């Protein structure tokens, strides 16, 4: 099944059923198909060809879904860009993915213009609302001709999406995901979670993030359910949306669950049937507290962009093991391998590795990185864990240097590169320190150049100008020298220990 066929499958439950909901606005399955088909036809008329990469820089809203399926309907490839990304980050993706066209929100335009100031121009540039940029096209103007999407236009093994995720070198890598892999993952993750056609899924996780893409968008539409959007991202609006729209399912990072629990105002969340959490370890005791205090039934999951979304889930029904991320979903195989790529005995710790039709074909224009990521046909996750005798997966550690803050991956090198651009910085080391709300905080230790001066606030602001805000350090400490190994490598473990001592 490709993603165009996936949408048609969900529409079988009724063309008049709501597919997308934003307050009083309802977009039916029939309308979604028609709007996406119209956009697909216009994109082709504007010169977008099968296989072309089209950037999609929108927040969670119905237009994201319409644009996503419209791009696919033209045979092109979706490349999501975080609408909060900064110009250097955007420019890197535009150049690396060889983007020719983009669909963007007005708030993204200043950074997008800066990103293309000295590079190739986007043609077409399509904007939600009334664009004030010469040559830009209003999205609404491309959604009026109707038509029908053609599932035969693309093969199941055709490239559907490239999602950029930071690598250990700090240079983002484009994860190549196919129609068939994304469709199968959406089918399997909603099967394991028990999503039904009468569910209303709150689209909280960004649709450009693999959790939002697989569950809130593709999985919802496969099941013929409704995706519910919030008009704003503040906690009261989100909880009020659950209460008013009677949402039943959502997938969120543990950070948000901790914030919901700590929120002083109580909302009626009784409609919420089940919550999937992933992207970072849930703080100990949080899930029990949510059940006891708010009546929220939460299950842990494990996923990866390279797996097209979900990998495993602690089963909502049956045996639920505390501390586990559950059993693999249908369509994916998980093994624990040693450094040589050989299986380890049951219950022994090693690297979690994946294979199956949902696993990425590799990284865009990165053959060396692709080869390094695989051991034979097994994808190395970089996560350390074990599988018990019942087949339940336990993660005991994760990628050595990666920081997970509010469910988003941040690699130290990317932040360090931004700091090194500052004229006062001689050396920088970035690590994560535990935080009860965000999971981890991005923190930096900096050595200044001789005779130079800079404040922590100045360096944090510097990073926020060059990175998506969640990647910027929240704390900066100044040292005379960074701890290093004999080979000159920064010892991040010692940085963490020093920060831990200072936190106390």
Radius of gyration: 23 Å
Low-confidence stretches: none
Fraction of residues in β-strands: 25-35%
Strand line-up in the sheet with most strands: 2-1-11-10-12-13-14-15-16
Q: Which class of the largest domain in CATH terms?
A: Alpha Beta
Shape: globular
Rounded mean pLDDT is 92
Number of domains: 3
Helix content: 25-40%
CATH-assigned fold name of the largest domain: Rossmann fold
Q: What is the CA–CA distance across the termini?
A: 54 Å
The number of helical segments is 14
CATH architectural grouping of the largest domain: 3-Layer(aba) Sandwich
**Quantity of strands, as a count:** 27
Structural class label: alpha/beta
Strand count, sense and barrel status of the largest sheet are: 9 strands, mixed
Architecture overview:
With 504 residues, the chain is an alpha/beta fold. The protein has 3 domains: 3-178, Rossmann fold (3-Layer(aba) Sandwich), CATH 3.40.50; 298-397, Roll (Luciferase, domain 3); 403-503, ANL, C-terminal domain (GMP Synthetase, Chain A, domain 3, 2-Layer Sandwich), CATH 3.30.300. The chain is 30% helix and 26% strand. A 9-stranded mixed beta sheet has the order 2-1-11-10-12-13-14-15-16, with helices on both faces. A 5-stranded parallel beta sheet has the order 4-3-5-6-7, with helices on one face. It starts with a helix and ends with a helix.
